[in-house]
């Protein structure tokens, strides 16, 4: 990748401090030896003077090589996953000493650690991203010098961006859904039809397919029998994300703990990967306008579209975003709402989804360190007779207690809630929903 600024040929070269120092010391030693009549002083400055003269002669003969060594920046990968590495390659010209320096960025590891490396005509740095989003690589400062280090030139290359998609976490959960609503797929239906799961062996009836005749049973009973199967259906999975506000972990939490937005993005990527691998259709609806809407789709292409949309979400610290409302949803849609359950509009939206007949699961993305009451033990309420103004832990502890009422009301309404704690977070909820689907129901009279 070559930017327009890199296409300007011809670097402005200047003598280095080493060349100036060698010329001054060598010339001064020669002058003093002639003035004082002490030839031994020539031995002191002759090596430096000879090096300066050789450098000057090399400059006259091969000066265009250094001026034409325009640095070019190339990225090994434009998109990486969390924890992945992208190579940053800087090329100039063979035989030219090249030094490239990258500034440090938050949540980014550089190799080498100081972000500066010198090579012969080519320098390769490595950038490792620890958090999803857009990583700014640059501006890259490049210094080139000739083989003797007598002349140098420098160029600042404009920054470029690397997309960091959420980590490809494999969700440890079953693929069963409460209500399959498609006509073909991996989910077993209660309805009998074309499929591979055996329902029963029954007597042959007109209209049955000949290739489903069970010849073993037919030969034993002397009557034609056929295999009846259950249909296999797909479903539509809707992931609703709450990005209205990004709640940071508590100050006493461990370094690198995820924020509520980090947990939301990673949970969305894991859930989408899980159901897309099962052949379902997955879509994303963002209540906070931070993630662009992703229409329903299936297959590897949909996964690439979804993860790219997630990685392009910006981090506007402390910015409250307006609420977008979902107007309707197809009954039976498996809807996973990733939210810290702090906004009343989001809680009301969950009620609307339930009223529309969706199978709603809430993934709690509030950092566990928020509202932790264990840090309040032994904490003085007054200092020097005055009330302490640092009531941040107490305020969040009260807010979490108020939030527990909302959690209890949602569970009483039949909405399961699980805290996001990694790939196995949804397994208990999905297993309970699958068990509830197959449980016997009382017939209404």
Automatic annotation (TrEMBL):
Origin: domain of life: Bacteria
Segments forming domain DUF58: 200-363
Keyword set includes RNA-binding: no
Membrane-spanning residues: 18-36
Keywords tagged on the record: Membrane, Transmembrane, Transmembrane helix
Name under which the protein is recorded: DUF58 domain-containing protein
Organism name: Brachybacterium avium
